[in-house]
Amino acid sequence: MRVEDTTIGPTIGYVVKMYPRFSETFIVREIAAREAQGERIAVASLRAPTDPRFHALLAGVNAPVTWITENGGRSSATLWAALGKVSGFPGFQRTLGELLTVEVPVAAQAVAVAIWAQENGIGHLHAHFASLPGRTTRLAAGLLGIPYTVTAHAKDIYVQGPDSVARDAVLRDARTVVTVSDYNLRHLAAHHPDATVALVHNGLDLEDLQFRAPIGRERMVAAVGRFVEKKGFDDLVEAVRILRSTGDPVRLVLAGTGRDEEDLRSRAVDLGAAVEFTGPLPQHDVIALLQRAAVFAAPCVVAADGDRDGLPTVLLEAMALGTPVVSTPVTGIPEAVLDRITGTLVPQRDPVALAQALRRVLDDPELGRAHARAARTRVEQFFDVRRQAASLRTITWSELVGVN
Prior knowledge:
It is built from 17 helices and 13 strands. It is an alpha/beta fold and about 400 residues long. It has two domains: about 10-205 and about 385-400, Rossmann fold (3-Layer(aba) Sandwich); about 205-380, Rossmann fold, CATH 3.40.50.2000. A seven-stranded parallel β-sheet has the order 3-2-1-4-5-6-7, sandwiched between helices. Strands 10-9-8-11-12-13 form a six-stranded parallel β-sheet, with helices on both faces. Helix 4 (about 90-100) packs antiparallel against helix 6, helix 5 (about 105-120) crosses helix 6 and helix 13 crosses helix 16 (about 365-380). The longest helix is centred in the last third of the chain and has 18 residues, at about 365-380. The protein is elongated, with a radius of gyration of 22 Å. The two termini are about 30 Å apart.
């Protein structure tokens, strides 16, 4: 990605739960794209990374990273000293009362983020997820007297829990709530009418995702993601079982890990070598897997607790690379997968319909190629990371000059 010659404006402070995080390549791409368009970014991570694996994408990011947990401290002496530092901040008196009512870890990190931002000349804070990062950012921005924005994804707006009241305050007080699908936009407008919301799709660096028409690929279905209920991988294993029971030699490759892995392996045990579990893969291996597959499946569902995917990045990657996709009409997916045009949609939690859709694409290579070509065009039109970065820059600059 070509980097512009000059930087613009004050430093933008990104506040995230954990950075880098193996499953959140969309944040890395977003930061790299904003830097390429001339913005200065710094990252505050509320937790240190625990996974030793990193994507090569990180090499394209210049933003310095501060791990707030390691540098903030929670001893009474440290907290007292930190409060002394922020006592002169513009919003201290206004924010102190609320700061003293929240959980100590949240208050400590909010104070630490505020100090980090002040020491690094940060003029605007942006959180990814309206949950813990959003709560921390709201308090830190209040102490500093500066605006903040937040990107709301899926779980952080659909799942109700003990932090819902705090989450609602994050959405209400943000200058702009950015969200990644029109489905989310409608939900936020209906349930959080006091929030100012803007649609900015997650983007891909299409220079790194070269289109290859799906010609001569092995009869293999690929799926990538965390092994959790909302991914619907149990339905996918059952769909492959249905296909295999009719003599179809189709194989399934599942890339990822998660709390449901043992259950998935148990479901697939009688399928033997027909199902391969690769474990989590770095980005270059994900791309290689997608380029081998005849079909990419994303059988997403709404989980029992309301959790759901916003719009899986790997689904967009498959579309960009030329792999035909089969998915479900959950949240923002139909905004990318136009049924029978850029891919195939089937009802969620319907393994029979899923098996039929997979077979249709596997048995009709020309259909797959037509879907793949249309999918690439769709991604280029709506999911280019450069478009995303430009939109975020416009939103940020309008906030910094006080334009709503």
